[in-house]
Amino acid sequence: MGKIKVGILGATGMVGQRFVQLLADHPWFEITALAASERSVGITYGEACHWVVSDVRCPEPACPEPFVPLRAGRSRRVEGIPALVKEIVVEECRPDLTCRLVFSALPAEVAGPIEEEFAAAGYAVSSNARNHRLDPDVPLLVPEVNPNHLALIGIQRRRRGWKGFIVTNPNCSTAQLVLALKPIWDRFGITALSVVTMQALSGAGYPGVPSLDILDNVIPYIAGEEGKLEREPLKLLGQLEGAAVREAEVIISAQCHRVATREGHLEAVSVKLAREPGREELVEALQGFRGPLQDLGLPSAPEHPIVVRGEIDRPQPRLDRDEGGGMSVVVGRVRECPVLDYKFVLLGHNTIRGAAGAAILNAELLKAQGYLEEPG
Amino acid sequence: MGKIKVGILGATGMVGQRFVQLLADHPWFEITALAASERSVGITYGEACHWVVSDVRCPEPACPEPFVPLRAGRSRRVEGIPALVKEIVVEECRPDLTCRLVFSALPAEVAGPIEEEFAAAGYAVSSNARNHRLDPDVPLLVPEVNPNHLALIGIQRRRRGWKGFIVTNPNCSTAQLVLALKPIWDRFGITALSVVTMQALSGAGYPGVPSLDILDNVIPYIAGEEGKLEREPLKLLGQLEGAAVREAEVIISAQCHRVATREGHLEAVSVKLAREPGREELVEALQGFRGPLQDLGLPSAPEHPIVVRGEIDRPQPRLDRDEGGGMSVVVGRVRECPVLDYKFVLLGHNTIRGAAGAAILNAELLKAQGYLEEPG
Amino acid sequence: MGKIKVGILGATGMVGQRFVQLLADHPWFEITALAASERSVGITYGEACHWVVSDVRCPEPACPEPFVPLRAGRSRRVEGIPALVKEIVVEECRPDLTCRLVFSALPAEVAGPIEEEFAAAGYAVSSNARNHRLDPDVPLLVPEVNPNHLALIGIQRRRRGWKGFIVTNPNCSTAQLVLALKPIWDRFGITALSVVTMQALSGAGYPGVPSLDILDNVIPYIAGEEGKLEREPLKLLGQLEGAAVREAEVIISAQCHRVATREGHLEAVSVKLAREPGREELVEALQGFRGPLQDLGLPSAPEHPIVVRGEIDRPQPRLDRDEGGGMSVVVGRVRECPVLDYKFVLLGHNTIRGAAGAAILNAELLKAQGYLEEPG
Amino acid sequence: MGKIKVGILGATGMVGQRFVQLLADHPWFEITALAASERSVGITYGEACHWVVSDVRCPEPACPEPFVPLRAGRSRRVEGIPALVKEIVVEECRPDLTCRLVFSALPAEVAGPIEEEFAAAGYAVSSNARNHRLDPDVPLLVPEVNPNHLALIGIQRRRRGWKGFIVTNPNCSTAQLVLALKPIWDRFGITALSVVTMQALSGAGYPGVPSLDILDNVIPYIAGEEGKLEREPLKLLGQLEGAAVREAEVIISAQCHRVATREGHLEAVSVKLAREPGREELVEALQGFRGPLQDLGLPSAPEHPIVVRGEIDRPQPRLDRDEGGGMSVVVGRVRECPVLDYKFVLLGHNTIRGAAGAAILNAELLKAQGYLEEPG
After folding, report:
1. Is the pLDDT confidence value at A228 over 50?
2. For residue A107, pLDDT beyond 90
3. Contact status, residue A46 vs residue A81, Cβ threshold 8 Å
4. What is the band of A63 on the pLDDT scale with cuts at 50, 70, 90?
5. I need a surface site. Which of A118, A373, B315, C367 has the fewest CB within 10 A?
């Protein structure tokens, strides 16, 4: 039986490129359609794309391109673009792509209605955009955290009369935070949480943060980020009750900062627990966490969703962001907090676990649960 | 009447150099003695010193050195060293220096007993070292915060039988935090406080942090820092009662990080207040703060000890660290905190307000209060 | 007698801001008009401008802005904008500005015809744009190098029938190179020259280089730069013969790189000389250079246009770029070159000596030579 | 038949760690001995080593360490250390190690006599230290460039009466330069060469360059580097004549700079050729180069020793340093030079092709040529 055909909306941007990269040799999915804005439509992906995600560990080293004469103007970078997709002609973001599922890396300015059109037309949509995350009938999903929220899909289809559907993954800093919170939430309950982030440059996309703004500097503000961090975890940790999710009752305060790192959001977290464990018990809960996915064999699910380090100065972005292929969250410095109950530091790869990898893992769960059978 | 003669202990290190720089044209003090470790004793300060603090705004541009032939080996940097001190011969850290007061920039490994010897011998000691900060009879001082703690000096002298005395300034990240807390503490009371720091490279001294450790990275640990931040503010905000300071009852939790900035510690703070003001009232308290020093005319006291910025993405280290000549603390993003009561971001210049400038301001207060009259 | 009224074209960009900053308290000039693109016209400069050049040493510390409530969206930075110009309403780039001279910080895409309109209308134009630099009747000017080229102005006016005129300053990396070459050229002659540059981020303007492109990286290409460096020095060092400049006969090879520094272009230079001096003689020529401007009292002319350092590891961008208020070039490591004759490293402040400061010094020379008398 | 037993001298330093990393699953060699300075002797490699080279692409992701309680003090980093060597007890650098060949990553201060002792005692020594590089009877070797220089080994043994022998690899910036020069040298001859380097931080070892020295800066000096670059290529490109190498007659001028990159030395090169080809012919010579090793099947020899890129802004350190597993040199911007004949930019991985990888490739050539048979 063949692989499932997938398309990527917004394929030429930074997150779109991560999708291409992570799907290049995926065992379940094959890229059959790439869509982007008007500027790129009608030319090949290799021509349309300025490749900026080459830092990730590829399975094989890039082949040297055949030499081409010096051109005037700025070069596009093309090496690293998987050969399989380089010749695909970029299409418009309209629901006539040849595929079963689309991954959406669209910017929030346009994602909303386009994703709805695709879902109405029968496509499964796995979206990284924020637009539908808080819609009551749209799953906001981290497979290790709330896989049962997929039940919202049936409600969504009925209510909206769609043949397809939309699922979403959370904001990057939320994704890694909620994953680390999950075993704590399950075993001890969380009543309040304070988080201060130090976020990587790639989170702002490309070209993103001007170098003159960040060299020898920290910027204590990221537009919209604190609101997402204070709200999205409530839905993710919420209880599915009938046709809706009852949000978790956790008070969250977030303060977000941009720092001069390429990849890997670092978060200093402090939690107040409903039932206070000893420190060893807390560490054991984090370390022992495997999540509900073991038996599903999802290709992108890391063996250890949470890795706990014991060294006093870890995790660090450059050293730990690639843990579990960028899909693990690394936790360190677990210790008592005089103000709340416990504090710790956590790190995740923001464009893998926090974006493209998250949406792919969601799609893998959809497949494993039978949501990607061909629509009647 | 002449200036007061001062010496610097540990004069060749990074903080020692800041002392030299800030004292170079001080209206009240003149440098008459420089002391350092054995390696530098007997040669001139110009020969002993590898000058690394030249980023600070000097009153006049550096004069070009006369050209010297290329030398093998690594160059010492000498420009920026004030001409007045370049020819001073470095002495040992023994209490026979020709001066009335010594500033101590000694490392904690050796500062303790050396500072005691100087105090015993009749010198006033204004120390940046941590060793005596928590001694019950030693003032831990920020002039705008707790000037009345100077009364401990009399107790210290009697108890120890010293002709001189020691006063100390707090750790860098504490100094700027407590200054911003002062008007809040006075008007609303603080019961709990959470602080997450993003600290500059200069805080680790020179050579300090290896470039390979911090390029594209954040280090979530600074040895000893969290303990200082959780403890020193209690004494600084404490009440002088009889012969001792009763520590303030504030619960503090600190998480400290090293980031790739040269100067300026950024702190994300959240506070729980005894009496909760409206936001405008809180901002007004911060903004209107002048401290108790206005009438004393201390040369290093900034006109605005606290500067409140209204822009949504300030303060930033590179843009705001030099506010008030590096002696002001800049506060921004004052807003409600869902977990505690209010949160905000603050920034201070860690080697000026957090180190050398702090000790100099302390010395200025000593002078204004009559503590530097010649000892009988 | 009052100051000369000046305007700035392209006033809100990075170089435009440097003009504002350097002219804020200029003894001869006062800013009376600011012009920019459509987007900014009709609002005040304080409203139109996102200030990014605050790293320069201002004569007085920025006054804290009155506190304004948090706004959504990205903040404009306004502190640092001199109070005198903040309320000036930005005008269109049309020749009806109230001033005698305009400084042009316009981008090359639009500078050409706009500057011509101003010159035709009687304005003196001191331009930093590349468009007219190589016009045979337009002076390409560095006052210490070729002040006599101002004689082209008369030819320019006659030929074009203009009441005003245009003078230009060279490209940033050319400006500092040619200044250092001048005494060598005069005393020993130069037949060939190889230069490899390591250029600062500010040279690309704002937002300019994306941080993701330059963190942990060097980019070995700057569009158009090598061509300028290989051509402009020939005109600058050329001989005025009758109505034209005969270009110098020097063979130049340039290789340009972008590195992660804020300000200060570093250049590794190697020269072949017509007459080969001893090393001491060469150093003496560089060090002793004063240029032809001493008696003119130009306010922006540094006392030492060339500063020679003897340490083995200088000049360095962060340590040396502010020499002479950013108007001096710093030369170091002068030594024999086995391939050509001598090699050395030089550094200049690219947005001061290489852009705004250059155009201002040109205007000062115009004034001193009587070119700014009111047009009949 | 088993693998050849190898030891590493100076195993705990930065280059020593690269040796460990690159040899961890080598098909021909197995690490059986690790030696270092006194401080580390008698404890396991895992205990002795602060691992700093984890940025290299490992074949498998690091296993999470078992959690250990928070320790006071700075953590050693241990993950990334291959399991096979972690428990090896570090020995002294004396010639009683259990192995046939030793790789020397010793610092130049001690390498000279220690390497001689090992060679005298019968060990093959493949050294990265500079001490013996220019000894007339010691091969200075890049396998793709001068494999026939191995014939010096016989002369060396006879002259010195050693059972073993020493071979050396060049300085990092020389290694990559000479590899790129080889096909040009062979086909067109080179009479003069100018090279300006922009070298990575790792070239200075660990802790190496202080972050305060390099943030927002370039340092135009690296001790000893220019001398090596101007001399070592002459021996590498020299002709073996009887018992000695006649050095190549090329005039070289080098200027070396330290920039803020982790790995990858960039070099701007200009060459004067004996016979001047057209540009396409030159590119073809570079691109078509395979070297003399194809039939030997050396495991570390890259398929393309030289990769030529056609984009106008390549090579770049972050994007190109891992080409060929760090063993290829990447050349770009090949174009005519007005002063000499051609200029181009080249990039190599300084701690792989420029250090540990170089010495390992040398050892592989020794093995392939029969030099590692057990000594009689």
Report:
1. yes
2. yes
3. yes
4. very low
5. A373
The distance of A114 to chain B (nearest Cα, Å) reads: 32
Is residue C332 within 8 Å of C311, Cβ to Cβ? yes
| Two tokens, residue C28 | 């001869």
List of chains touching C (3+ CB pairs within 8 A): A, B, D
Alpha-carbon span C185 to C171, nearest angstrom:
19
Phi, psi of B346 (to 5 degrees): -135, 155
CA atoms within 13 A on the CB side of A219: 24
Residue B166 clears pLDDT 70, i.e. is over it:
yes
**Least confident residue range of A14-23, A126-135, B28-37, C53-62:** C53-62
- Listing DSSP states for A134-189 in one string gives T-TTS-B--TTT-GGGGGHHHHHHHHHT-SSEEEE---HHHHHHHHHHHHHHHHH-
Which of D49, D51, D70, D202 is most worth mutating to test chain A (most A CB atoms within 10 A of its CB)?
A: D70
With beta carbons less than 8 A apart as the criterion, state whether B27 and B363 touch: no
Q: Is C55 helix (H, G, I), strand (E, B) or coil?
A: coil
Q: Mean pLDDT across the stretch A193-220?
A: 96
Which phi and psi angles does A355 have, rounded to 5°?
-155, -95
CATH of domain A4-170+356-368: 3.40.50.720
Residue window 265-304, chain D: list those with CB within 8 Å of chain C: 266, 268, 270, 272
Q: Buried b / exposed e across B97-133, counting CB within 10 Å, b at 16+? A: bebbbbbbbbeeeebbebbbebbbbebbbbbbbbbbb
D8 vs A373, higher pLDDT: D8
Q: Residue C230: which of C195, C186, C203 has the closest Cα?
A: C195
Question: Which pLDDT tens digit goes with each residue over D104-113?
Answer: 999 999 999 9
Angstrom distance (rounded) from CA D124 to CA D103: 9
Contact yes or no for C300/C357 (Cβ under 8 A): yes
Mean pLDDT across A54-66? 38
Residues whose CB falls within 8 Å of the CB of residue A236, separated by 6 or more in sequence, listed in order: A140, A141, A142, A145, A146, A170, A174, A178, A248
Q: Using CA atoms, how far apart are residues A56 and A15, in angstroms rounded to an integer?
A: 13
**For A172-349, which CATH class?**
alpha beta
**Nearest CA-CA distance, residue C302 and chain B, Å:** 11
d(CA B267, CA B273): 18
**Residue A186 to residue D349: CA distance in whole angstroms:** 47
- Please count the other Cβ atoms lying within 10 Å of the Cβ belonging to residue A170: 28
Give the pLDDT confidence score for residue C139 in this predicted structure.
Answer: 98
Q: Which residues is B63 bridged to in the sheet?
A: none
The whole-number pLDDT of residue C111 equals 97
CA distance B247 to chain D (A): 27
Residues A347-370, mean pLDDT to the nearest whole number: 97
* Residue C193, burial from CB neighbour count under 10 angstroms (0-12, 13-18, 19+): buried
Give per-residue pLDDT as tens, D122-167.
Answer: 999 999 999 999 999 999 999 999 999 999 999 999 999 999 999 9
**Sequence letter at residue D342:** Y
- Domain residue ranges of chain A, discontinuous segments joined by +: 4-170+356-368, 172-349
Cα separations in angstroms, B352 against A250, B301, C175: 41, 12, 36
Distance CA B94, CA B92 (A): 6
Give the pLDDT of residue B50. 84
Dump the DSSP string for C178-242.
Answer: HHHHHHHHHHH-EEEEEEEEEE-GGGG-SS-SBHHHHTT--B---TTHHHHHHHHHHHHTPEEET
Angle at the Cα of C265 from the Cα atoms of C259 and C269, rounded to 5 degrees = 105
Instruction: Establish if D325 touches chain A: CB-CB under 8 angstroms.
Output: yes
CB-based contact B169:B358 (threshold 8 Å): yes
B partners (3+ CB pairs within 8 A) are: A, C, D
| Residue A211's pLDDT band (cuts 50, 70, 90) | very high
